[in-house]
Structure formats: structure tokens, C-alpha cells
Amino acid sequence: MDRTALHLEVRNALSVADELSRHEHCLGHDDLAGGLSALRSALGDLERDVGRSHEDPTTPQPWIVEAVERSLEALLIHRQNVPRSLRVRTEQLIASAERVSLALWDPEYPVPAKPVMGMLPLVRALPQDVHSVLDYVHTAGFLVSASLATTGRARAVGLALGAGLGGVSLVSDYRLSAGKLLPIETHEKVDYLTGLAAIAAPFLLGYAKKDPIAAMLHVGLGLGTLVTSLVTDYRAAKGVAWPMRSRGGPPQRGEHGVRVEEAQRPLEGLSSAPTDWDPDADAAKDDELSQ
Questions:
Q1: Alpha helix stretches (DSSP H) within 3-83
Q2: What dotted CATH number matches 1-109?
Q3: What gap in Å lies between CA 195 and CA 175, rounded to an integer?
Q4: CA distance 14 to 93
Q5: pLDDT tens for each residue of 85-113
Q6: Long-range contacts of 85-94 (CB under 8 A, 24+ apart)
Q7: In the chain, what is the straight-line distance between the N-terminal and C-terminal CA atoms, in Å?
Q8: How many CB atoms lie within 10 A of CB 89?
Q9: Torsion over CA of 229, 235, 238 and 243, rounded to 10 degrees?
Q10: All structural domains of the chain with their residue ranges
Q11: What is the rounded CA–CA span in Å between residue 242 and residue 114?
Q12: Distance of alpha carbon 207 from alpha carbon 140, whole angstroms
């Protein structure tokens, strides 16, 4: 996994772990809150270690890796106890933390895509490189359908789907692309949307009977794109990901929304989160006990 991508993934996981630990603490779930706090601390140590890669490109300290592993394992044990309202966010945290864990143990291992909607693809059977070649084959097929189309709508659909799928493929984070800019999960979502759009377009736009050749090509290519996507073992070349922003902690009484508004970047804004802790009060108590 690319070092820069690893650093961003660590920051993403750290940001979400901080957010969820605030929620679980507020709900009184001490086991979950403690596990999330431990994961947050381990990720914090790892972030500082990985962030010094420009000075020291060596792997992180073994004790840091072990701490991340232990904390992630504890979270996996308690994942079924997470409240329904926090499960989606928890699964996002687990996916990021698992990617970090894999990268720590084997930096050269191809980066597996995070599950889309928690369950896709259905089976990871088709190798990524084979899928990548099929992306370009399907792109060519859509463009050919545009040249064979006899109606303006079918021609427009063929051009749009071909240009869209081809453009996304050229900049996706997999080995057979020109630029590793787009996260592999985003490419996977585009595959599903392209397949569904190609299947539905002839019927929704009314050219299924008026332009049968183009319509058959669109449905056939759409089915091919959709089926291959559902069984592809999506793998990223570098592990590119989008930054994930912290949503802060739960609202205080009488408040609405989150306690921290739109943290600018994964780690920014956390130190300014509202808290009930009063350091002056704690110091006064310590003075009373010492007297």
C-alpha cells in the first residue's frame, strides 16, 4: 500500500474512532467506549510514526502494530453490540482499520476494496486485472453501439456510457490504468451504475423497438458489466481513499446535530470539541485532598 495512502487511511480511522468513542461513552457503553478509545490511541501512535515517513521510511514500530491489532480485534468482538444508529459508521471504521492492519503486515500486498454497502461484491472470484481488461472491452462495445445506432437517444446513451466507463477506468486506482486517482470503491460503484443504466436505458428512453441492435448491445453489455462487477475481487494498486471527516460527538441537551461542526480534515477540530471536563475544577479538588 502506498505510504501516503496509508497515512490518509490511518487518519480516517482515527477520526471515526474518536467520533464513535464519544457516542458510546455518552450512551454508557463502557466496553465499547473503552475499546474505541484504545483503538484511537493506537492509531494516534501509528499516525505519528507513519507521518514521519519523510524522515524515516522504515516500517512502524512492532509494538504499535500489535496495539492496533489488539484494539481492532476487541472492536470486532463487540461489533454486534453497537447500536443500530452507529452500525454504518462502525463498519466504515472497521473497513479502514482492517486495510491499515493489512498494509502494516504486508505493504506490498494488493489492497482489497472495502465492501460497498456492506455486502458487495457478492463473490470475490474474478481477478482485478481480468476485470480491468473487461472494463476496456465494455467501453469499446458501448462506443461501437453508438456508431451502429439509428436513433439519437441510443447513440447518446452509447457515447455517454462508453465515455463514462472508459474515463473512470483510465483514472481508477488499479494496475491497468493511466492514473491512480480514483478510489477502487468509487470505480466499483460506477460499474454497478453503468450496468444498471445500460440495461434500463432502452426501455426507459423508448428505443428498445425502434433501435433493436443498439438496444440489444446495451442490455448485453450492461448485464456483462453488472455480473462481472458482482463477482470481481476488486484490488487497488495504491489504496487511494477519500478523506473522511469527523462528525463530532453526540449533541448536548437542548442542542441539535453534532457537537463538532464539520471538522476541516480528519484530525482537525477534535481538540476544540465541547467537553464537560473542567481542568480548574480538577485542580481545586486535588488541592483540597492534599490539604
A1: 3-27, 30-50, 62-77
A2: 1.20.120
A3: 22
A4: 8
A5: 899 999 999 999 999 999 988 888 889 99
A6: 86/20, 86/23, 86/24, 88/118, 89/16, 89/19, 89/20, 89/247, 90/20, 91/115, 91/118, 92/16, 92/244, 93/13, 93/16, 93/17, 93/20
A7: 56
A8: 16
A9: 60
A10: 1-109, 128-236
A11: 12
A12: 21
Chain segment 3-61, per-residue pLDDT in tens: 889 999 999 999 999 999 988 888 888 888 989 999 999 999 898 888 765 555 566 78
**Residues 6+ positions from 103 with CB-CB distance below 8 Å:** 1, 6, 9, 109, 111, 239
pTM score, two decimals? 0.81
Closest by CA to 35, choosing from 70, 85, 87, 84, is 70
Cis before 121 (ω within 30): yes
Give the range among 147-151, 164-168, 230-234, 285-289 with minimum mean pLDDT. 285-289
pLDDT-wise least confident of 53-57, 176-180, 262-266: 262-266
Contacts of 240 (CB under 8 A, 6+ apart): 2, 5, 173, 180, 181, 182, 183, 184
The answer to whether residues 67 and 100 touch, using CB atoms and an 8 Å cutoff, is no
What is the number of residues in the chain?
A: 291
Whether the CB-CB separation of 161 and 198 falls below 8 Å is answered with yes
